[in-house]
């Protein structure tokens, strides 16, 4: 093997991708038609999130050696990381046709199926890889994840326990154990495994996300919300929409029944309040509890930059809403302080929806929508504030305009939940 390529491989294994890339370029200068060099270059570029260049290098590797399974594997990996799973599936199947005994190939096939929520196919692929390498870490962990998604948590726990007994210093396995324990509702033990995973690999984002969820799950309300989130994540997109629409129309039907039968209203109203509170919490629980986590020393360090930004926005809205409520107490509920409290309190919903969307065009679209809704709310606040400085006889028409703006703002907030639901389920290619 070319000495530059040997050094590149060592640097790649140490996650020093920029230095590995320099060595590979020197190796390619000596042999520009080496498929392995192009494939390794693709992986380095992928880790550095240079997706277009990584795709080009992977395709070049396949072009130079169409019978080289590793080239197809790398091509599939690049496509998978770019969320182009249909193409990734074709590429990994091409690799498997050339080598049907490589556990790494089956691990990637399982990961693609997991991304597409094909839990049974993911389990089958992982188990097939384990037939060729019974100690393969990737296949073992993917098998456990698939088992959890299929509701077979006891088998998943046994699988991970075996893997940890075999290799107790594997960060990925510890992180996987942590998420499995979270599924079972044991946040305390889950946190221990997430911390161990971060000790072994401080850059493990999966474990870092687990720490955040485990810390928040110590709060009773969020623990129940987390169970709901994890349960929903196991469902297909169609099933998720069925639950969302079922809840919405169920609430509407209950409202109609209560209106037609006033005697039933005292029984129906509490149910509707619980549903509406729960629906609001599905959007706001995550950023609000992230905000509370800022008070925890360890939790503050575990939060990602994106989570900190989201919690800052939510915190600012809640603070302004509290100021508005304080103003209502001091100046009276008919003052513009009430509008400030309403607008800032309700803005939490579209803002939370924005950060739930995947980075890329879904988040951009939701941010634009949220900004438009916020502008309507700000206009309503400004209008009612200006009314305080006008003679009462000149304000009647402007009050109607202000009320119209508040109504339009409220409609925009309700609409944001539906638009966010649509955008959350979109996964943009990279």
CATH-level-2 architecture of the largest domain? Alpha Horseshoe
Largest sheet: none
- Class derived from helix and strand content: mainly alpha
Shape: elongated
Radius of gyration: 26 Å
Which percent band covers the strand fraction? under 5%
Say how many strands there are.
0
Quick take:
With 430 residues, this protein is mostly helical. 81% of the residues lie in helices and 0% in strands. 38% of the residues are buried.
Explain this structure:
With 430 residues, the protein is mostly helical. It has 2 domains: 180 residues, Tetratricopeptide repeat domain (Serine Threonine Protein Phosphatase 5, Tetratricopeptide repeat); 126 residues. The chain has 22 helices and no strands.
Descriptive tags:
mainly alpha; Serine Threonine Protein Phosphatase 5, Tetratricopeptide repeat
Give a topology summary:
Elements: H1 3-13, H2 17-30, H3 35-47, H4 51-64, H5 69-81, H6 85-98, H7 103-115, H8 119-132, H9 137-149, H10 153-166, H11 171-183, H12 187-200, H13 205-216, H14 220-233, H15 237-260, H16 265-293, H17 297-302, H18 305-331, H19 336-346, H20 348-356, H21 361-387, H22 396-424
Helix pairs in contact: 1-2, 2-3, 3-4, 3-5, 4-5, 5-6, 6-7, 7-8, 7-9, 8-9, 9-10, 9-11, 10-11, 11-12, 11-13, 12-13, 15-16, 16-18, 16-20, 18-19, 18-20, 19-21, 20-21, 20-22, 21-22
């Amino acid at each position: 093997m070319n000495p530059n390529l040997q050094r590149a491989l060592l640097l790649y294994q140490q996650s020093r991708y920029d230095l590995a890339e320099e060595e590979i370029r020197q190796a390619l200068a000596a042999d520009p038609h080496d498929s392995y060099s192009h494939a390794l270059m693709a992986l380095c570029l992928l880790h550095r999130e240079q997706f277009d260049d990584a795709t080009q290098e992977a395709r070049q590797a396949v072009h130079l050696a169409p019978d080289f399974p590793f080239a197809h594997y790398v091509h599939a990996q690049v496509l998978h990381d770019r969320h182009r799973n249909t193409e990734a599936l074709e590429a990994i199947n091409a690799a498997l046709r050339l080598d049907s005994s490589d556990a790494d190939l089956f691990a990637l096939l399982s990961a693609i199926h997991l991304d597409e929520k094909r839990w049974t196919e993911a389990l089958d692929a992982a188990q097939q890889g384990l037939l060729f390498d019974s100690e393969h870490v990737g296949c073992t962990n993917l098998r456990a994840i698939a088992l959890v998604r299929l509701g077979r948590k006891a088998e998943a726990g046994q699988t991970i326990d075996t893997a940890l007994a075999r290799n107790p210093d594997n960060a990925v396995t510890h992180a996987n154990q942590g998420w499995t324990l979270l599924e079972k509702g044991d946040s305390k033990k889950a946190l221990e495994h997430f911390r161990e995973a971060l000790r072994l690999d401080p850059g493990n984002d999966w474990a870092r996300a687990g720490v955040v969820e485990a810390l928040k799950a110590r709060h009773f309300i969020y623990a129940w919300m987390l169970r709901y989130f994890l349960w929903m994540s196991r469902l297909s997109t169609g099933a998720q929409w069925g639950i969302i629409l079922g809840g919405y129309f169920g609430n509407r039907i209950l409202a109609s029944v209560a209106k037609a039968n006033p005697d039933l209203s005292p029984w129906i109203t509490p149910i509707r309040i619980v549903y509406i509170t729960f629906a609001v919490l599905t959007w706001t629980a995550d950023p609000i509890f992230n905000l509370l986590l800022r008070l925890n020393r360890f939790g503050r360090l575990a939060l990602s930059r994106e989570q900190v930004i989201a919690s800052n926005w939510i915190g600012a809205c809640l603070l302004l809403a509290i100021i508005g409520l304080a103003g209502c107490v001091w100046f009276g509920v008919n003052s513009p302080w009430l509008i400030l409290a309403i607008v800032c309190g309700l803005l939490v919903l579209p803002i939370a929806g924005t950060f739930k969307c995947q980075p890329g065009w879904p988040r951009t679209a939701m941010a634009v929508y949220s900004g438009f809704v916020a502008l309507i709310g700000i206009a309503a606040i400004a209008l009612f504030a200006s009314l305080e400085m006008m003679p009462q006889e000149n304000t009647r028409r402007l009050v109607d305009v202000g009320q119209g703006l508040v109504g339009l703002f409220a409609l925009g907030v309700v609409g944001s939940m539906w638009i966010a639901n649509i955008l959350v389920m979109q996964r943009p290619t990279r």
